[in-house]
C-alpha cells in the first residue's frame, strides 16, 4: 500500500511540470524519461534507444501491411496520401462531391466525420453514390465520443479512426484525478476494454482497418493525471487501445500521434516508434500536424513535423491539415512525399557522407545546443553583439547591385525607415551575406552598408571579395578547407571571421575546427548530399569537441516554386531545429528577398525558436465545424496578426478545442450553430456569443488581458508605401 501512495505523490508533480507550456516558443521540452514507479504502473517500458532504422541514412521503418479498401499501407508500399472532407456528412451529395474532388486531386483515402446516427446512415448513401460514379477511394470514419456510431459505420466504410482520448472517456476535462491505488486506474482500463472490444471484433469480422489516432489536445483526464500533457501520455493512450486489439488477434490497424506543435508531434512519434521497436511491434504510422493553419505558415509547420519524420524513414501515410479546401491539401502532400522518396532513392546522398556514429543526440531528452553569441571586444567600431539573435537568427543573401537601391533593400530586409535611415524591427534580418565584390566607388552601396551596420545588421562577405574591395567592420567568410590550410588572416577592414562547413569534409579537415574561433559557422550542404545526415555529423563533431560556435543552416534552392522552398526548408532544416541543433537560417534562391526573409522567420517560429508574429492554432474544418472557418480565420488574422508573442486558437468545434488551446493564450471555438465560446488558456470565459459579434469580443478579450497593442501606422498603410523597386 505504501508504493501506491508513492504513485499518488509523483503523479500530480509530473502533471504540473510536463504541460503543454513546456513546449512553447523558446522553452525546453520536458524529458521523456519518468519515475520507475510511474513507468511500471502505466505500462510504457521507455527502454528502447532506437526510434528509426538508421540515423546516418534514410531507410523506411519496416512495418506490416494494413489494408483499407483497395489501398495497402506500410513500408512495402508507397506513402499513401489522404485528406478530410469539410461538408456536413449528412449532406450526402455535398460529401460525394467533396470525395470525388479530393480523389481527383490525388487523395488515396478520404476521411469524413461521423458524429451521430444521422451521419452514420448518410455514410451508406455516400459510399453507394461514389461506387455508382466509379469511385472506389477508401473512406475513413472519424469517430469521437460515439462507440455505437462506430459500430454502425464499420459496416460500410473501409477504415475507422478512433480517438483514444474520448472514445470511451467522454468530453475533454482538465480535472486532476489522484488514483488512491492501481485498482482505481485499472477499473477505468477495464471500462475502456468493455466499450472498445465490440468495435475491434466488428472490424476484424468485416475486414476493416483502424487508426488509433491520439491527439495532443484531447488526452483523457485519466492520462493527464498520470502523465501530464506529454508525448509519453500520448503514446500510452494509444497503447491502451492497441493492447485490446492485440488481445483479440486484430492487427489491421495503425497509429498516429498528432499535435499542433511540431516539436511535440515529432517527439511523440519518435517515442511511439521506439516503444514499438522495443516491443517488436510493426504497425504503420499515419503522420500529421493537426490544426497547422493556412497558407505558408500551415505548410511550414506541416513540413517541420511531417518532413522531419519522413527524413528518418518514419511514416506510411500522411495528411497536411490546412484551413483551406481539402483538395488543396494534396499538393503539399505530394511534394512532401516526393522529398522523402528522393531522399531514400538517391543512395549516393548517404554514401557521400563519410561513415560516422552518432553518440551525442538523445531523442528522449530535448536539449538545445547553445551557440556562443558574439562578444564585444575592445576597439570594435560597431556593436557586434546584434549580428545574431539569441532565439534564432535570420541571414539574408543580397547582391552588390541591390545595395545600390537602399530603400527597396531596407524594405525587403524588414527594416523600418525614417528620413531614409533604416531601423531594426521585430522581423528584420539580423545580418546580410553579400555575394560578390562591392565596388569601392559605389557610394550608395557603401552608405547602405554603413547604415545597416550602425543599427546592428551584420555584414558577411567572402574573404576573397573583401581582399579585392574591403568593407569596414565586415565579417570575412572562409571555407573550412581554406581556413584549415593556414591560420586565418583577416582582410583589411574585417573585424571577425566566419567559416562555411559542408558536413562531408574528411574527418581530419572537420577536426581543424578545434583550433579556430569563428564568429559563426555557415552549414551549407552540397547538392547530392543528405542535408539531415551531414548536419548531424557536424553537430556530433562540434559537441564532442566542446565547440560552441553558432551554426547557421544555409540552404540554397534552384528554380522551383515557392511552396517547394517552404516544404523542403521545413523538412531538411526543421529536422535539425526540432532537435535543438542550429542557431538560425539563411535561405538563398532566385526569389524576392522579402519572401525568403519571411519564410526564414516562419521556420524559426514553426520550430518554436523565435516568435515574430501572432501564432495561430487553426483547425482544418470538417463536418463538425459550426462556422465558416476559412472566412473567420482570415478575419481574425487580419485583425490580430500584429501581436507577436500571442497565440490564438481558432477551432470549429469542441472535439480538440480546449486541449489544443492548452498551448494558446486565447481561443475562439464553435460551441453551437451560430454561437461562439471564447477561452483564456483552457478556461472558457464567455459562452454563446453570436458569431457576428465574436471577433470583436475576441479583440476586447485580448485587450482586457493586457495583450493588445495598436497597429503601427506603417503596418496600417502596408503595401501603399512599398518602394516600387521592392515589388520587382
| CATH level 1 name of the largest domain | Alpha Beta
Q: What is the residue-mean pLDDT, rounded to a whole number?
A: 87
User: Sheet with the most strands?
Assistant: 8 strands, parallel
Count of helical stretches? 26
**Which blocks of ≥5 consecutive residues have pLDDT under 50?**
1-22, 24-42, 716-728
Fourth-level CATH superfamily of the largest domain: Dihydropteroate synthase-like
Number of strands: 25
Our estimate of the beta-strand percent is 15-25%
Terminal-residue CA separation: 74 Å
Number of domains: 3
What integer value in Å does the Rg equal? Answer: 26 Å
Helix content: 25-40%
Per CATH, which architecture of the largest domain? Alpha-Beta Barrel
Order of adjacent strands in the largest pleated sheet: 8-7-6-5-4-3-10-9
Structural class, judged by helices and strands? alpha/beta
Q: Shape from CA axes?
A: globular
Describe the oligomeric state of these chains in a short phrase: single chain
Question: What is the CATH fold-level name of the largest domain?
Answer: TIM Barrel
